[in-house]
Amino acid sequence: MLRAILYETYESTWFPELTPAAAQRFRDEDRPGAYVRARGTEFWVAECDGQVVGFVDWDADFVNALHVRTGHARKGVGSRLMDMAETGIARAGFPTARLETDTFNTRSRAFYAKRGYRETDQYPDTEWNSGLTTLLLVKRLGEAPRREVTHRPKGVSG
Fold first, then answer.
1. Nearest of 103, 5, 95 to residue 57 by alpha carbon
2. How far apart are alpha carbons 117 and 62 in whole angstroms?
3. What would the pLDDT profile of 85-125 be if each residue is shown by its tens digit?
4. Residue 31 has pLDDT above 70, yes or no
5. Which of 9-13, 52-56, 100-104 has the lowest mean pLDDT?
6. Rounded to an integer, what distance in angstroms lies between the CA atom of residue 38 and that of residue 146?
7. Could you tell me if 81 and 43 are in contact, meaning their C-beta atoms sit under 8 angstroms apart?
8. What's the pTM value of the predicted model, to 2 decimals?
């Protein structure tokens, strides 16, 4: 199901922007399958009626991916998944969350801007090798939660 979601969002978002050679490489390399095999156990998923309809993946302060099935877009699934990622990132002690999107992806840019993400850099998208431009977006998460001491070493009081 995760692989299917990645292919669905690829077809609707990136495929129209890629050169034929980059699109063929994507299929030949089965990038969605490789990604799921590499990181799938780290994904947080959203379900509706027993079906996985989206997922988010982050590592440290970087959101690697947010994907929602087309039929569930604009229904709050992506927002709830991002809430989960941002909370997890903040709980890990990071003051900001970072992610990438592409300049052509106006829908994702608007979604992230509404959530408070700001563009901090842009660079050639080497992943697709198709002339696309990647944007680095950063959001300040507020004050990181204080870490509580769960035990005290011997001789420490107070």
1. 5
2. 13
3. 999 999 999 999 999 999 999 999 999 999 999 999 999 98
4. yes
5. 9-13
6. 32
7. no
8. 0.84
